[in-house]
Amino acid sequence: MINRRNFLKTLGGGVAGMMVLGSYAFAIEPLARLNITRYALTPPGWTPGLKLRIVALADIHACEPWMSADRIATICARANDLGGDVTVLLGDYVSGMKLTTGQVAPDRWAAALSTLKAPLGVHAVMGNHDWWEDSEAQDEGVETFSHRALRDVGISVHSNTAIRLEKDGGAFWIAGLEDQIALLPNPKKNRHRVQGLHDLDGTLAKVTDDAPVILLAHEPDIFPDVPRRVALTLSGHTHGGQVRLFGHAPVVPSRFGDKYAYGHVEENGCNLIVSGGLGCSIAPIRFGSPPEILVIDLG
């Protein structure tokens, strides 16, 4: 039988353990860790001999103290060292989180992102928080301040658009979707449910030859609708669940649950890679899902 002294020792040890884990999730993993996660694949239909390295950043969620402009610049410097042919940004540049000591102005986080360099350019799409935190965009349906901030510093912003690029004589396309849950319900606008502004068919219709397509889509939930014509879909949004226990995320912002929460998924001949992202959403914690930069080698 356990006596009172042993019970209190056990209880104290449990409380201490929880405090350590909480401190790690709150102060160490989201602030002090940065993983470089690498994938290498040759998707079906990829141009023979074309070697392409993509560096991808997702879900920055700029705010103090978790993702300051200085920290963003440091992450960008690390990304530049990874030898990408092209760099992509997968949305959610603004925070939307209440547990902060302050927001980072768009011109400041955009200036930090402007330090990203790649031979074939830096290409971006928007995320849901870029729309949700912009009242004018919500009310008027105009582009967000995140669109403008990135464009003002020379970053290519894709909104249901596609661009053809070449490396060593081999061509490929970057196609970027507008956000899939961009507009929140607003009865005054006769909008009674969340509304997406993405146009997958219209975007792919702008691809005018047989070169492979890399699709940028903030939310991975579009993946079941993506045709085999697309060589690779890159997404963020989920943060890998932000908390992952034994490789499983208990809560994922996706109608598919944990299915597209994180990593490389191959389904029906199509490939998806979901980034765990860099910042935090809702609460400033990460556990088992450290901030990461993706490096994807194709071909």
Structure description:
The chain has 299 residues and is of the alpha/beta class. It folds into 2 domains: 1-32; 35-298, Purple Acid Phosphatase, chain A, domain 2. The chain is built from 7 helices and 14 strands. The protein has helices at residues 4-32, 69-80, 106-113, 128-132, 135-140, 145-152, 200-204, and strands at 35-41, 52-57, 63-64, 86-89, 102-103, 122-124, 156-157, 161-167, 170-176, 213-216, 230-235, 263-267, 270-274, 292-298. The strands form 3 sheets. It has a 6-stranded mixed beta sheet with strand order 1-14-2-4-6-7, covered by helices on one side. Helix 2 packs parallel to helix 3 (106-113) and helix 3 packs across helix 6 (145-152). It starts with a helix and ends with a strand. The model is unreliable at 1-20 (pLDDT under 50).
Major β-sheet annotation: 6 strands, mixed
State the order of secondary-structure elements, H for helix, E for strand. Answer: HEEEHEEHEHHHEEEHEEEEE
Class of secondary structure makeup: alpha/beta
Helix content: 10-25%
Q: Order of strands in the sheet with the most strands?
A: 1-14-2-4-6-7
Quaternary state of this entry equals single chain
Strand content: 15-25%
Gyration radius, rounded = 20 Å
**Averaging pLDDT over every residue, what do you get?**
91
CATH topology of the largest domain: Purple Acid Phosphatase, chain A, domain 2
